[in-house]
Write a structure and sequence with these properties.
Elements lengths: L2 E4 L33 E2 L3 E6 L1 E3 L10 E5 L13 E4 L30 E2 L8 E19 L6 E10 L2 E8 L6 E22 L9 E2 L1 E4 L9 E21 L5 E7 L23 E4 L5 E4 L3 E4 L2 E4 L3 E10 L13 E12 L12 E4 L2 H17 E3 L19 E3 L11 H14 L4 H12 L12 H4 L6 H16 L2 H6 L1 H11 L12 E4 L17 H20 L3 H21 L1 E2 L4 E2 L11 H9 L5 H12 L25 H13 L3 H16 L11 E2 L3 E2 L15 H10 L1 E3 L6 E4 L8 E8 L2 E10 L2 E8 L4 E7 L3 E4 L2 E2 L10 E8 L1
Parallel strand pairs: 31-35
Antiparallel strand pairs: 1-35, 2-21, 3-14, 4-5, 5-21, 6-8, 7-12, 8-11, 8-13, 9-10, 9-11, 14-17, 14-20, 14-21, 15-16, 15-20, 18-19, 22-32, 23-24, 26-27, 28-29, 30-31, 32-33, 33-34, 34-38, 36-37, 36-38
Helix pairs in contact: 1-2, 1-13, 2-3, 2-5, 3-5, 5-8, 8-9, 8-10, 10-11, 10-12, 12-13, 12-14
């Protein structure tokens, strides 16, 4: 489709003889808003219960739910002098809480459930534990108590019977921390041998962990528990209203998950995973009625501890207690609950907070836009020491500030690569850019002496990523474009110069291309910690985009010579990319000039958006990316030579520039199809609504339970639909000048508003047969250009016009095109 560019004067059009398009009606976008209506969030249903639970609806505030559990019977013991050996065991250390501990096999028969045997061959099998009884003992079976950090899943239990080993029981697919294993027949023996061939893989590693092997079949009363559903991913501090409890201080344990699949006896991710904790939150319930707010801390010392804030959809509440919490909390008794709720801490995106909005004739696109906005809201929160990533991420310079965390559940740290997308979503929906600015300024304040800018506060601002300083540049330009805050650009201009004129030249090779491996960067990662080296198209295409953005910042702050110099360098890098990284046989850009031949979504998409690719190259490269299309999106690699699932893994983060490239090259319908496959998949699979960090083989969460199912870097559908489908974009800082260039494809109509420093800029368009109509209302004191389909008749403010540039100004304008 050809397009006609016209710059419009400030007038109001009333076009006679033209039927008003649906986009002229009053907005109805509010019905798509996803956020809770208040910060007091309640669960929507009870999904299941186990053990003795009466009136589970009391958890929803409908009466009182009661959980009861009798005290477990005493455990059987091995004869005094019983020993254990193992194929390997981990060396002693200080554990995750600084307390010395051992992991030798004797811990499995010492009667202490807080000690455990831990093998020393992570992910390698078999792991063998052999128990030698001090005297013959009659056994109908044994009971294995493992560890919530990962249980043996597949194992055999052998006994020494009549002088020979025989298999007495086989277990497969186990997920229970405590498992009674009955033998095929009772036996009197002096030795038992357990051979593990598979363990659960957890954030604490894939090890065989056995706390106790009890001689006999232990049948503890079942743990009373209930699983409640909040209906969507939420974030904040859980609260439980207790109507009372037995006098023995019964314990409750809370496990959280974004998906039912990964809701187990521990949370699918919790900060205590990284500090030697149990992976659940604990509380000792007093006998008097009380409301407990789950906050980070312990009841006494290291006993009865909780993590506080969580991002989750599902919550399992159990009447149980850790052995190490005795006597402060007991795993038996009675607990009465009259309601569960959540103090919602992220940005609360109710309809009245939206400063920008979007709506179209395609209901699915509308849903994805607001679902992505909600995903972003979940990460827009105050930076607090109690709930940021525990891996060295806390920073006093961010404490108490509004930031854009990468995820609701994890990592809960502001990463600049994520801000590259989540910042755009912020500007187009709610905020004035404060959350993004706080992140960008803080990272610049921690710039290294050689010009490198850290990606996040994690690891005390030392995580070595190769591409993220470039994202700081592009994100800074986006921030200034949308907000007009040139004071920020001036404040950090020297940081910009040092990044582009000191650090990146230090990793530029003789061909003028960035090459990972130079200047000690061989061990640097990128957005996915991919093991690529040398001249990578993605790094260089992003470099071109960063240089272009830097030129905009330079001009906005009165440094035209720097702008010219950086644009010249961008042109030189673009030429080198085309000369050395274009693969004519594949019709696409190579992922890297070294190693196996492959072609990446990231490099090819950014090369198109940066203007490196010619129209023919863009068409060919996009066809290459579409060739591997999956039901849940387009994969980020065209073969598996870099990572084993390259053709099966989908990132919304790297798909966003592909969507932009498709819209801008006249492939709007293919962009819409890609949106519907990718965002439609996430919307219709657990947990629903929110956008995932990544999608793996078969449409799974690509890193199992560790995956963040509400991740800000996956919200690119918001800028894709607003900037490209609706067509509204800033052309200079603060929308002083702007462009409205719709890419409608087969969508019948769209409308929306974009916040600017001078007020909302609204646009609506419709296409009905051969007639295309576009109406724009822009703030006074701004100017802009419209790009509309070419036709044999073009009416501007009711007057026939030719193509070209017309007077500039704010106000309301309408163009009709008869094609």
């Amino acid at each position: 489709m050809k397009w006609l560019r016209a710059v419009l004067p400030v007038t109001v059009l009333v076009a006679s003889g033209v039927v008003a398009a649906p986009a002229d009606a009053a907005p109805g976008w509010q019905k798509y808003v996803v956020a809770p209506t208040s910060r007091d969030v309640r669960p929507v249903k009870v999904l299941s219960t186990t053990g003795d639970v009466t009136n589970p609806d009391g958890l929803l505030g409908r009466g009182v739910a009661t959980l009861k559990r009798d005290a477990p019977p005493p455990k059987p013991a091995w004869p005094a002098g019983t020993t254990a050996t193992a194929s390997s065991f981990h060396a002693p250390n200080n554990g995750g809480n600084g307390q010395p501990r051992t992991y030798d096999p004797g811990n499995a028969v010492d009667g202490d459930t807080e000690t455990f045997w831990n093998d020393d061959t992570i992910g390698a099998y078999p792991d063998v534990l052999t128990i030698t009884s001090a005297a013959p003992i009659s056994l109908p079976g044994v009971t294995l108590l493992s560890n919530v950090d990962g249980v043996p899943q597949d194992y055999t239990v052998e006994v020494l019977d009549a002088g020979a080993w025989r298999v007495a029981a086989t277990v497969s697919g186990n997920t229970a921390v405590q498992r009674a294993v009955a033998f095929d027949r009772p036996v009197t023996t002096t030795q038992v041998r357990i051979t593990v061939t598979k363990d659960q893989n957890t954030p604490s590693g894939e090890f065989s962990r056995v706390a106790e092997v009890w001689p006999g079949l232990v049948a503890d009363p079942p743990v009373p528990s209930a699983v409640i559903d909040f209906g969507k991913v939420v974030a904040g501090y859980p609260k439980i209203a207790f109507a009372g409890a037995s006098a023995n201080r019964p314990g409750v344990r809370l496990a959280f998950s974004e998906t039912l699949q990964y809701l187990g006896e521990r949370s699918d991710f919790t900060r205590s995973d990284f500090s030697g904790g149990p992976g659940t939150d604990q509380y000792a319930v007093p006998s008097a009625p009380t409301v407990w707010r789950d906050t980070k801390g312990c009841l006494s010392g290291t006993q009865v501890c909780a993590d506080g804030l969580h991002g989750f959809r599902y919550l399992r509440i159990s009447l149980d207690a850790l052995a190490s919490d005795s006597p402060l909390a007991q795993p038996s008794g009675e607990v009465r609950i009259s309601g569960v709720s959540l103090d919602f801490t992220p940005f609360l995106g109710t309809p009245d907070t939206y400063r920008g909005w979007f709506e179209s004739s395609d209901d699915a696109l509308n849903q994805y836009w607001y679902a992505a906005s909600y995903t972003n809201e979940l990460g827009m929160d105050t930076f607090r020491e109690s709930d940021v990533d525990p891996r060295g991420a806390f920073s006093p310079s961010l404490d108490g500030k509004l930031v854009l965390h990468d995820g609701a559940k994890r990592d809960r740290d502001p990463y600049v690569g994520d801000v590259a997308v989540s910042g755009l979503t912020e500007y187009l929906t709610h905020q004035d850019g404060t959350a993004a600015k706080n992140v960008l300024a803080d990272l610049a304040d921690h710039q290294r002496a050689d010009g490198w800018i850290p990606p996040a506060s994690i690891n005390n601002y030392t995580l070595p990523l190769f591409d993220y300083p470039l994202w700081w540049v592009t994100s800074s330009w986006d921030y200034v474009l949308y907000t007009g805050d040139t004071a920020y650009a001036s404040s950090y201009y020297s940081h910009l110069v040092k990044t582009l004129d000191t650090w990146y030249p230090s990793v530029t090779d003789s061909r003028g291309l960035l090459a990972k491996g130079l200047n000690g960067t061989g061990g640097y990662g990128d957005y996915a910690f991919l093991p690529r080296t040398g001249e990578v198209t993605y790094y260089n295409a992003l470099y071109v985009r960063a240089l272009q953005g830097a030129a905009g910042l330079a001009r906005a702050t009165g440094h035209p010579a720097d702008a010219d110099r950086w644009l010249a360098r961008a042109s030189a890098v673009a030429a080198a990319v085309n000369q050395y990284l274009w693969d004519p046989a594949a019709g696409a850009y190579l992922d890297s000039a070294t190693g196996a031949v492959r072609h990446g979504q990231d490099g090819n998409s950014h090369a198109i958006v940066a203007g490196i690719a010619s129209p023919a190259q863009a068409t060919s490269a996009l066809a290459r990316l579409a060739a591997g299309a999956l039901p849940y999106g387009n994969p980020f690699m065209d073969n598996d030579t870099l990572v084993s699932d390259g053709t099966k893994r989908v990132y919304a983060f790297t798909s966003f520039p592909e969507l932009v490239a498709r819209f801008r090259t006249g492939q709007a319908d293919s962009a819409i199809d890609q949106i519907k496959r990718m965002y439609g998949w996430m919307a219709t699979h657990d947990p629903g609504i929110t956008a995932w960090e990544g999608i793996g083989e078969g449409g799974s969460h690509y890193e199992q339970g560790y995956t963040s199912a509400a991740h800000g870097w996956s919200t690119g559908v918001v800028p894709a639909l607003t900037n490209e489908l609706l067509g509204v974009s800033p052309a200079s800082p603060g929308f002083a000048t702007w462009t409205v260039a719709p890419h409608p494809g087969s969508v019948k109509w769209a409308r929306g508003a974009v916040p600017t420093p001078k007020g909302a800029l609204s646009a609506s368009w419709s296409q009905n047969g051969s007639v295309f109509s576009l109406t724009v209302s822009a703030p006074r004191g701004t100017s802009g250009s419209l790009v509309v389909p070419a036709g044999h008749l073009v009416l501007l403010d009711g007057h026939a016009v030719r193509g070209g540039t017309l007077a500039v100004g704010g106000g309301t304008h309408t163009v009709l095109v008869v094609r």
